[in-house]
Inverse folding.
């Protein structure tokens, strides 16, 4: 989800909820403790230099049950961050405390914001010799291509 999308959704919401990939909701007394721009400048295993930028939200569970983050307050935080950090309309990643700091993508299911799982990937599969996708072969095709006949004496 991009920054413009979350702002548009928040305009029409009366409450904010984040749903973890397992279906549980982040406790409603969470805080957004950071909004930032994360820049990553790196070289992949194939030798290509790359740059990535994302917007980062950090969610934190406080023991503060009296203050809930309302949509208009989060929009204000986002707009202040856009101005101060010169944020463009980038993809959002969300950090949340699990076993360690876990990083998620952000989606919306029409009711809650959803924290979506992310995965590592090789960006240079063509240079590493890793096929994009394993070839799928039907066993019936292999047999039809002259496989060994049990009565043919080749086995």
């Amino acid at each position: 989800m991009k920054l413009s999308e979350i702002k548009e959704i928040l305009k029409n919401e009366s409450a904010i909820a984040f749903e973890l990939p397992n279906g549980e909701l982040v406790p409603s007394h969470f805080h957004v403790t950071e909004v930032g721009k994360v820049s990553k400048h790196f070289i992949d295993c194939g030798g290509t230099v790359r740059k990535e930028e994302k917007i980062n939200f950090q969610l934190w569970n406080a023991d503060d049950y009296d203050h809930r983050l309302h949509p208009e307050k989060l929009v204000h935080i986002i707009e202040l961050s856009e101005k101060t950090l010169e944020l463009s309309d980038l993809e959002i990643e969300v950090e949340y405390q699990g076993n360690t700091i876990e990083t998620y993508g952000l989606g919306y299911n029409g009711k809650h914001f959803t924290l979506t799982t992310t995965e590592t990937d090789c960006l240079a599969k063509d240079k590493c010799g890793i096929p994009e996708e394993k070839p799928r072969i039907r066993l019936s095709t292999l047999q039809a291509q002259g496989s060994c006949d049990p009565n043919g004496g080749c086995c």
Observations:
- The longest helix spans residues 71-85.
